[in-house]
Amino acid sequence: MIKKTFLLLSFFVMVLMITACSGLDRLVSGNSADVPEGATEIVMWNLFAGGDAAYMQEIVDKYNNSQDTYFINNVQQEYEEYYTKLLTSLGAGKGPDIAVSHAHTLPELVNLDVVEKLDSLAEKVGIDWTEYNKNILESTMFDNQHYAIPIDTHPHIFYINNELVGEAGLLNDDGTLKMDKTPSGYRDFFNTLKNELPEGKFPFAFVTAGVDSFRHWWSYYSQLGGEHIVTEDLENPTYVLDTEKAIEAAEYMLKFWYEDKVIPLNLADFYSDFQSGKAATIATGVWSTGTWENTEDLEITAMPLPNIFGEKGAWGGSHTLVIPSYEETDPVKQKGALEFMNYAADEGAIWAKAGHIPAKDTVVESEAFQEMPYREDYAQTADYINFMDRTIYARAINDIMVRNLDLIWTKEVTPEEGFQLVETEVKDLIAD
Amino acid sequence: MNKKAWIQDMKAIPFLLPFLLAYLIFTIFPIFKGLEMSLYDWNLVRKMEFVGLENYVEMVQDPNFWQTLWNTTLFVMLTTPTMVLLALGLSLLANLNTKLKTFFRGSFFIPSILSVAVISFLAIFMLQPYTGLVNTVLQSIGINAEPFWMADKGLAWVSIVVVTLWWSVGFNMILFLTSLQDIPDALYEASEIDGASRWKQFRYITLPQLIPIGRVVILLQILASYKVFAQILLITGGGPGGATRPLIQYIYEIGFTQNNLGYAATMSYALFFILLILSVIQLKNQRMEEK
């Protein structure tokens, strides 16, 4: 009995110690870094994970070693709760000096008045805005004012498994695809794969429901000439989805699952299906390029999502860096922050290792970037990405689209009914 | 009150104070803060303007509020009776005087100590199509089908309910078990002398003795089920297409992605009142019967 009690007790003490230690650890790692003497500490919050996080740290380390006036303390935050934490911290005046923000979240931050305008500071630091890609830069500007430094854009693109696609006889000698870039040609490509692939392999790794399907649909909608869901009025947008094109894009996608059956329904992990060589192709974001490259025995080619409907269009997001505003500003920190932000954009070649397309044209044209495989091929996508409509409702509209499109993909509703639901819900959200 | 008893009471205060402070700061204060928020246009960053009952009017007219409230209610209706029956059955099994007694008790209770993230990911691994355990077993016994346990509207509910039962039945089983062990042996002995069968013993001794704890289990289960959120978010994400989205997930989305804490607080208050009313009805009922 005593032995048992003792065992139990020591178990509890152990649990207590483990939890206490990890708690303490978390407290410490969040706030204190070894700031070199004389350097000004600048705290940056990022939302990256995996390869992205490692490459961002590489940029930060390079910057910290390159000078000793400033020290960037790069704090990695949990992606899922990032914006909640950022917004509440800014509300309490306890946020970072630099924050990562997606371009589509900028309208919210600008509207809440929690980020600094960068124009006058940029002049002092000597930022040359013409070095940046115009399409990307525009997604960070409001009322002709700069609010953020974009560091990349990350469109959805198309990857093929060279071996599987080659064996199916769908590769030309120069490595390009034997495919007519038309709606029917694209379907033919997958149907040929389906017939030619060996047992146990399938043509196209893709999800059925979720955010990826929405992004894929958005690419086709854009290629069909669809531009918006709502107008780009920051606070008072109106609903302008081109329902006809929206339905056409959705009906086209439905064929992949239900008519041609080139994508198995409800794949649990479409990344691993492609990575393990079970699927011949995949459509997803450029951020996966680094992952595929680092996978043994996987030979891939990355290319823009085929433009099959006439116009060029793709879904894409953009990571940007912003300077949060506080009641009491510290000009020294702000200057250092902006200097680092521009530096990070200049180091786009490091960032591109993860797969992203650098935001600076000067970086895209640089030798370091051009030497990297595939990037150059898909970097052109940056010019025609159709960014999400810039309103304070962008994140909420994203959720509404994903949820209602899921009803279409799972055949709960027809595309007509689905977009009717979208219209009702979005109009309700924006009080249109 | 005499002096001695008063001093005795005073002695308790230092022991109560630490908890009371935490309770005031983290429970009582937010209750009133939430009420204030529900009357304002309030975002994640700051308080905006006073809007009176506008948020409440919006709530009544919001189809998503009613849809998610119905989803939560459906979950309550599905889990409460099944939970009570399952917990009762398992507690009877765990109360049997066999060599496996400890094994039963342990294995029924162990899932309860796992965190919601762990049980959700276990569920996803087992339920996923093509490679999941459940479908593989089904196919190995000759059922040639590929059910989508998480993507099909009806099956998604089945999955969520079964996973929740498996996860949380242990605690309710313990409640029943303690009550079972409180039933005096004399009752069984006396009935045995009178020649009662096992079934009659169960029907006329065990069940009536379990009614009070049964009530507690039902009340706790209803309250807990109305607050369902994490396992649904993790397993189906509220999908397919919002078919399993519970009210709390909607409140969370409104508050944190739509940046509208005022309206989120309003809906939280609605849920609070639903739970309050249910609790009061249940307690009233109990008192009436006790009288």
From TrEMBL, chain A:
<dbReference type="InterPro" id="IPR006059">
    <property type="entry name" value="SBP"/>
</dbReference>
<dbReference type="GO" id="GO:0055052">
    <property type="term" value="C:ATP-binding cassette (ABC) transporter complex, substrate-binding subunit-containing"/>
</dbReference>
<comment type="similarity">
    <text>Belongs to the bacterial solute-binding protein 1 family.</text>
</comment>
<keyword id="KW-0732">Signal</keyword>
<protein>
    <submittedName>
        <fullName>Extracellular solute-binding protein</fullName>
    </submittedName>
</protein>
<dbReference type="GO" id="GO:0042956">
    <property type="term" value="P:maltodextrin transmembrane transport"/>
</dbReference>
<dbReference type="GO" id="GO:1901982">
    <property type="term" value="F:maltose binding"/>
</dbReference>
<dbReference type="Pfam" id="PF13416">
    <property type="entry name" value="SBP_bac_8"/>
</dbReference>
<dbReference type="GO" id="GO:0015768">
    <property type="term" value="P:maltose transport"/>
</dbReference>
<feature type="signal peptide">
    <location>
        <begin position="1"/>
        <end position="22"/>
    </location>
</feature>
<keyword id="KW-0813">Transport</keyword>
From TrEMBL, chain B:
<dbReference type="InterPro" id="IPR051393">
    <property type="entry name" value="ABC_transporter_permease"/>
</dbReference>
<feature type="transmembrane region" description="Helical">
    <location>
        <begin position="155"/>
        <end position="177"/>
    </location>
</feature>
<feature type="transmembrane region" description="Helical">
    <location>
        <begin position="108"/>
        <end position="127"/>
    </location>
</feature>
<comment type="similarity">
    <text>Belongs to the binding-protein-dependent transport system permease family.</text>
</comment>
<protein>
    <submittedName>
        <fullName>Sugar ABC transporter permease</fullName>
    </submittedName>
</protein>
<keyword id="KW-0472">Membrane</keyword>
<feature type="transmembrane region" description="Helical">
    <location>
        <begin position="74"/>
        <end position="96"/>
    </location>
</feature>
<feature type="transmembrane region" description="Helical">
    <location>
        <begin position="204"/>
        <end position="224"/>
    </location>
</feature>
<keyword id="KW-0813">Transport</keyword>
<feature type="transmembrane region" description="Helical">
    <location>
        <begin position="12"/>
        <end position="32"/>
    </location>
</feature>
<keyword id="KW-0812">Transmembrane</keyword>
<dbReference type="GO" id="GO:0055085">
    <property type="term" value="P:transmembrane transport"/>
</dbReference>
<dbReference type="InterPro" id="IPR035906">
    <property type="entry name" value="MetI-like_sf"/>
</dbReference>
<keyword id="KW-1003">Cell membrane</keyword>
<keyword id="KW-1133">Transmembrane helix</keyword>
<dbReference type="InterPro" id="IPR000515">
    <property type="entry name" value="MetI-like"/>
</dbReference>
<dbReference type="Pfam" id="PF00528">
    <property type="entry name" value="BPD_transp_1"/>
</dbReference>
<dbReference type="GO" id="GO:0005886">
    <property type="term" value="C:plasma membrane"/>
</dbReference>
<feature type="domain" description="ABC transmembrane type-1">
    <location>
        <begin position="69"/>
        <end position="282"/>
    </location>
</feature>
<feature type="transmembrane region" description="Helical">
    <location>
        <begin position="261"/>
        <end position="281"/>
    </location>
</feature>
